[in-house]
Design goal:
The complex is a heterodimer of chains A (about 160) and B (about 90). With about 160 residues, chain A is of the alpha+beta class. Chain A contains 3 helices and 6 strands. In chain A, a hairpin with a 2-residue loop joins strand 5 and strand 6. The longest helix of chain A is centred in the middle third of the chain and has 19 residues. The relative contact order of chain A is 0.21. The chains are: A alpha+beta (about 160), B mainly alpha (about 90). At the A-B interface, loops of A face helix 2 and helix 3 of B.
């Protein structure tokens, strides 16, 4: 995870297009300026970044399923539950299942695990729009390859 | 009133917190009921699920934005219901 750059996903572990699910690994960094403020002397991964991690897992899944024809933007988070604290150095597993692809929007269920324990969950809704420019699309493709999104889903 | 209207009016009432009696077949979802784009996302998801369809919102919005049709064509309740019925019929 590179928290300051909002790079929450380190590596795609599995992507099942039939089941419409993705599993990704993330390692919370030992140090980050974010932990200096959240909280002084008691560093915790902010809850909004737990949600962002689930949202990004679902986002990569959607882009992969649509072969990077659209980019999903976070539109709505429903029924979010942040069950326990996440601290620096913890390895996480983010899981997302695409439950609906609508016209111009998509819905995914996200879950975040620390070791085997479910630490967060939410239903996440996205607006799907065309990439605003080719540079952003190319950057997303570069990141997709860096996090080992299966090449079959990466169409430059 | 049709079952489709009852279902959609119920969805809008519950999703957007609009009194059910305020929703009539002549109501324009945006102009009269004040449903904004984020709430309409909720409505679209609920309608898609309830009827097992994929409401072509992008196409409808594009046609309205390009001036090809009036927004009434897709967003007045009775017309919205008629479009939903057509989508359901196409599914069979």
């Amino acid at each position: 995870m590179r928290l300051e750059y909002f790079r929450m996903i380190d590596r795609v572990v599995a992507l099942d297009s039939a089941a419409r699910t993705i599993t990704a690994g993330c390692l919370v960094p030992e140090a980050s300026p974010i932990f200096e403020g959240h909280f002084p002397g008691y560093p915790l991964l902010p809850g909004v970044l737990m949600i962002e991690t689930m949202a990004q897992a679902g986002g990569w899944l959607i882009m992969a399923m649509q072969r990077f024809s659209n980019i999903p933007f976070l539109a709505q988070v429903k029924d979010a539950k942040l069950r326990s604290f996440i601290t620096p150095g913890q390895p996480l597993t983010a899981h997302a299942e695409l439950v609906h692809e609508g016209s111009g929007y998509a819905v995914a269920n996200g879950r975040l695990f620390a070791e085997a324990a479910l630490t967060a969950e939410a239903e996440i809704r996205y607006r799907l729009v065309s990439f605003p420019n080719e540079a952003l699309r190319n950057e997303m493709l570069t990141v997709a390859r860096a996090i080992a999104l299966p090449e079959a889903f990466v169409h430059a | 009133m049709s079952a489709t209207f009852d279902t959609i009016a119920g969805i809008i009432s519950e999703t957007c917190d609009i009194p059910r009696e305020k929703i009539t077949p002549e109501s324009h979802a945006i102009n009269d009921l004040g449903i904004d784009s984020l709430d309409f996302l909720d409505v679209a998801f609920a309608i898609d699920k309830a009827f097992g369809i994929k409401m072509p919102l992008e196409q409808w919005t594009q046609e309205v934005n390009e001036g090809k049709v009036s927004s009434d064509r897709y967003f007045v309740m009775k017309d919205l219901c008629s479009n939903i019925d057509s989508l359901v019929a196409q599914k069979v």
